[in-house]
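Hi everyone, sorry if this is the wrong subforum. Our group has a chain we'd like a structural model of before ordering constructs, and none of us has done structure prediction before. Sequence below.
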Amino acid sequence: MHAIVREHHRDALILLCRRYYVSRLEVFGSAATDRFDVERSDVDLLVELDLSAPLGGLEQFFGFKHAAERLLGRRVDIVNPAFIRNSYFRQCVDETRELVYAADATNRSTPREGAPVGHPEHGGSDPVVHSRAQF
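Answer:
Right subforum, don't worry. Here is the predicted structure as tokens:
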């Protein structure tokens, strides 16, 4: 895994996973190898979302994508591994994929980092508060 993920941004990516209810995050492609070009490469991520989350799927997906792009300072491509149908592409992904984050039961017992006060995770009742605060 390239240092841009491993050393520089791993902890912040984990916080984003918790904020957007990502249950599993893996890096693949050039960012998982020595082929990564700091000047030109994007970052390819395998993302599995917790579908029982209080956020809508689009908010989870695009919120995480945009936040990861801001954090990493480059384009981020997100792929849900369950939807990879092309066997050649799956093989390429499987050859380079590396785990960044996997949720466990303890990650879901506390409010997400950055969840606004008044959000249901803090005992509030307005699920729209988070949407307005993030976008």
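For your construct planning: The chain has five helices and four strands. The first helix runs from residue 3 to 6.
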